[in-house]
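Posting this for the archive.
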Amino acid sequence: MTDLENLVPPHEPAEDFFVFAGKAALNLVPVVGPLAAETLAHALETRQAERQHEFNIAIAKSLTDAIVRLDGTATIEDVVGSDDFIAAVTRAQRAAAETASQQKRQRLAAAVANGGSWAPFSISEREQFTRLVGEFDELHIWLLHYFTDPAAWLQSRGLYDQHSNIMMGGISSPLGSALGVEERVWRSAVTQAIADIERAGLGAVPLTTTMGVDGIFAPRTSEKGRRFLAFINEPDSLAAEPPASL
């Protein structure tokens, strides 16, 4: 099977330059304003075209991987020719143009690859998950990863033992260790993100509840939450790193 990314037309910045040069030549007047505006417009148009090309490549790669996982149950022609695919691409391109996050753009590309009837997700899951990809930030995604198995995540980084001898407590202390910042820094952002996760049915995190050690380290991401992570092609929760800033 041919990788779809090989079929994406290349971005030709030289062509952008020649268009710009022609426009600029017509505006060579002794006034800085119009030429500066033309320069800015060219820079924005060129960068947007470059970003669009990069996103098209990301979609092609994600879709190629998805077709391989389907193991012959659907072909590239089936997917690309479907209304589901066109609708998914249209939504994702709009969202991708509005974010500066490369990670979110990758997740949007994965949502396109899993956004149709060929993918192993129900219609309601596809609709909700696609919406959540645009709404969730890096903190939401990391919390879903972390609460898939808090004990294993902490153990993989040598952070578990300092909390394992607690008889009673809450999840805030180990969560703070995982985030690497004081509670006063993360409390507001995490509380809001957890509320979003719970409202979507992706997990239940009792942030203020006192419990025994088993409860402190119990998984909190729901099966639906794990399916959402699979929808955006992020199955390796132990490798997920917390956001650099909150």
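The CA atoms of residues 171 and 199 lie 20 Å apart. The chain has a mean pLDDT of 85.
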